[in-house]
Structure formats: C-alpha cells, structure tokens
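Appendix B, record 7
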Amino acid sequence: MSRDMTGRVAIVSGGTGALGQAVVHRLLDAKATVAIPYAVPAELDALRARLGSAAEAVHAAETDVTDEAAFADFAKGVLGAYGRIDVLVNGVGGFAGGDLLSTPVAEWQRMMTLNLTSAVVGCRAALPAMTAAGYGRVVNIASRAVVPPLGGFIAYTVSKTAVITLTQALAREVGRGITVNAVMPSTMDTPGNRQAMPDADRSSWVSTEAVAELIAFLASDAAASISGAAIPI
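Structure tokens (predicted):
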C-alpha cells in the first residue's frame, strides 16, 4: 500500500501554525494538494515563503473554522476547484491553564470552541464529499497530556478528551472507506512552547515533523484498516 498521495486533496485547518506547517509540508512531499483555511495572513505568508515553489499546490482562503457556514463555504470552494476532498486534518487548537475554580466559564467556552467545535465543524464540512466518494481520511489532534487527565489545565484537558471521544464515536458513524483517527502528541517543540517554558527540559519534547509524519500516515492509503484510534506520540 502506497504512501504516495498524488491526486488527493487535503484540508488542513491550522495549516499555518507550527504543527500545521509541518503537516502541510509533509503532505505536499507526498504529492497531495493542500487547502488551508487560515486566520492570520502573516502566518500564511511565512508558510508560502518556507514552501517556495511548492506553494503552488496550496489553496488558501481566510476562514473562521469555528463558524459552520464559513467552513462549509471553504469546503465548497475546494470542491469547486478540485472536485474532491480526500483528507481532513483538524489542526486548530488552543491551550489554557487553570483549575476548575480559577477558570472562568468564558475560558471553558473558548477551549471547547477552539479544540472541539472546530473539529466538529470541519467534519461536518468535509464528510459529505467523502461520503459521496466512499473515501476519506479524518485526523484530529488530541493531546497525550490528557490521558490520564492531569490537573492544572482542566478546560484544555476536558476539551481535548472530548476530541478523542468525538474521534471514536464518529469512526462508528462514517461509511466504509472513511477512517477517523486522532493523534495525541506530548509537548511539541515549537517556538511558542519554547517561549512559554524557557527553562524546561526539552529532551523529551516531540518534533512537529514527527507528529506530521504520523498524521501523513493516517491520511494515506496505508492506514486504511485503522479507524477510531487515538495514538500517542
């Protein structure tokens, strides 16, 4: 079974972020066409600069991926341009610390919106095309830190645990030929994490490239028999 994704079209939400850029780069290396609903124009510019001539295989449009109508419009645009949606990587997310009593309800809602609702909205936008084609790969981003649940960042923990539950439940709902899986990275070596934890021991941190490699595998034909999995890395 081939890891070659020639002819496949992948939507990568969060594709201009630290992990997202690594995912986009890896899928382009596999010869997929990549569509990115983005929020920060400067991040898109940085991604295009990193990709060089490979950026020609990137379709991008400014989109609020937590807004169902906006993501649906983006997916329609991808279908109109390429006639298919084969892969969805739900890569948008956020982090917030705090225990139950110190976390305002508004922060709970923000974590649920960024980490869970964005994935739900993405799936609702992409699955109709996958169902019609009888083929699809959905990859969600959970977190190794929430299994088992740890204290200190409860809103994040609950929202990312919900992503795992969404993955497992949706895997039972989708039709034959469509897989739904999640990856659970431990702390990733990103500029943001280095800035937030300047004194941390980074020897056990996982690279974004390693996470992207796992995502690319789950998005490929080689992973056709894997669905409903939440894989730590």
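Remarks on this record: The radius of gyration is 17 Å. The first strand starts at residue 9 and ends at 13.
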